[in-house]
Amino acid sequence: MQNGILLEAIKTTLQKSKVEKLAAIASEETFSVKELIDLSFYHDEQIGFRSAWILENVYTNHQQRFLPYALYFLEKFEHQGNLSALRHYVKILAFMTKKNASAGVKEIMANYDTDHVVEIVFAWLIDDHIPVAVKSHCLNILANLNTKHSWIREELLQTMDFLIDKESIAFFAKVKQIRKQLSVGS
Asked: With a threshold of 0.85, does the pTM exceed it?
């Protein structure tokens, strides 16, 4: 699918079923994951959001199509300024860093220099302008990368202590879950 056709397909409000259908179309090589990533930076934030949402569904349901573009995704990750699209980006990275990620994803993450990603994710975590849903996935990413960067644990615990009174009850519940994950991993 050429970029223009994809753009037309996502200009209108999407339902979950249409997102899943577009993700399936992407899995059939009609348009590339790279196009979705690029469109997630589109000047119209709704189009950017919809592209990121489809991208998340491609990762979740058609990972074999996502994998060839995983490094491109990681390179673009820090530049995502659309907060609605960012929610999907951090969710994808949280999946990519989980201990039960596929062997292909684990290999990509093991060979990728995640230092800068960790720095960016920590910055988002303490940024007052970043929505709590994004921060929640940031906690997952950092806890998951703790196995690769042993220093994260202490820093993350301190950061959560700092943020616990500033964020919502939902954030508090996530912090409790992350503390448990970090204590199991130590």
From this structure: yes
